Structures are given as C-alpha cells and as structure tokens.
Amino acid sequence: MANLTPTPDRPGLYVSKPSPNAPATGSAVCHCGASATATGDNQVRALVEGYTANHGSAHGRTVR
User: Cα(4)–Cα(13) distance, rounded to whole angstroms?
Assistant: First the structure.
C-alpha cells in the first residue's frame, strides 16, 4: 500500500481508524503551508472540519 500521508509536495487530508476500538489518527497539509496532526476521534473530527472549512479546496472558494 502506498504511503498516503500528506506532504508539502502532495497536500491533502489523511484519516485512519484501524479498528472500532482504536483511536482515530489524522494529518493534514495544505498547499498554503499549514499542517496539523490529531489523535483521538474528537480531535480528528475537529481536524477534518477545520481543514475542510479553511484549507484545501476552501482556498478556491469565493464568497458571494
């Protein structure tokens, strides 16, 4: 399996939860240079919400 962890050269969001009883882990890297990691279901949920609202494709959005 390829390494799916985002890097500055390959920005994105990666979340893993190997089993229902294991805590989720996540990492995010944006093309603007911002990066973050999280461990635990609630922290990863916050990471995903923050990344999708403020980074990644959010940079291309226009407000009307």
Answer: 9
Question: Which residues lie below 8 Å from residue 51, measured CB to CB, with a gap of 6+?
Answer: 13, 28, 30, 36
**Amino acid of residue 33:** G
pTM: 0.82
Residues 6+ apart with CB under 8 A from 33: 8
Tens-place pLDDT, residues 19-44: 999 999 999 999 888 999 999 999 99
Half-sphere exposure (Cβ direction) of 19: Cα atoms closer than 13 Å: 2
**Would you say 46 and 39 are in contact if contact means Cβ atoms under 8 Å apart?**
no
Nearest to 56, CA basis, from 22, 11, 15, 25: 11
